[in-house]
Structure formats: structure tokens, C-alpha cells
Amino acid sequence: MIALRYRTAWIVASVLLVLLVIWGSLQTSVQTAPIGGFDKFEHFGTYTVLAIWFTGFARRARYWLVALALIGLGLAMEIAQFTMQAGRVAEPLDMAANTAGVALGVLIALFGTGGWVQRVEAWLP
Fold it and tell me: How many angstroms separate the CA atoms of 69 and 72, rounded?
């Protein structure tokens, strides 16, 4: 992790973000209509945002660890959905969309957004 002045705040925000994704992946009480009836866009977009978020905290040489952790999170959510048997369905295409989103997020980081947290902190007092 890169050196940060507001490290604790970033960690709290990151934990909340991951908890929100876990809740959204596993909850069964709030069902929203997928974009265009195709929920793979939601998976793709969520994991793209996660990858951009977490590459902001990592050195470029460690982006592969960010990607591996996020793919692991996606896999864990699909396994949990399968195990729960509570109205959520695990699908291989969901995992493919998650992985593609991670790949795009890391690619975006490589070409410009990587390390964004330090740039944000430079603006803060």
C-alpha cells in the first residue's frame, strides 16, 4: 500500500465499499431490474469500479494482487449464492463478467487512474 495521510479514512471507505458489494451480492430482499434485462452489466460495472478503487492504493507492480483479490471476491460471492439457495443464483457468466470488469479496471489504472488516491490527497488540506 502506498503512503497516505488519511490512511484510516481510506481503509474505512474501502471496507464499507466491499461490504456494500457483499450485501448487494447476497441480499434477497431488494430486487432491481437489471440494465436491459441483462445483469452482467451490473457485475461488469461493479468490478470495474472496485478495480479502479483498489488500484488507487497499490503500486503498479502489485496490481496483479488487486486483480487476484477481486476475482477471489467475485468467486466467493458466486459460491455463497450457490450455497445459500435463497433466491440468488450462481452463474458462470456472472463470474466472467466480474473478471472482465476487473481486467478493464486494471487496464484503466495502467493508463491513467492508478495511484489516484495520492492525487486526491494532494488536494486535501
Answer: 5
User: For residue range 18-37, what is the model confidence (pLDDT) as tens digits?
Assistant: 999 999 888 877 666 565 55
Domain boundaries, the chain: 7-26+38-123
pLDDT reported for residue 99: 97
- The three-state DSSP-derived secondary structure of the chain is CCCCCCHHHHHHHHHHHHHHHHHHHHCCCCCCCCHHHCCHHHHHHHHHHHHHHHHCCCCHHHHHHHHHHHHHHHHHHHHHHHHHCCCCCCCHHHHHHHHHHHHHHHHHHHHHHCCHHHHHHHHCC
**CA distance linking residue 101 with residue 53, whole number of Å:** 12
User: pLDDT > 70: what percent of the chain?
Assistant: 91
Distance CA 122, CA 73 (A): 30
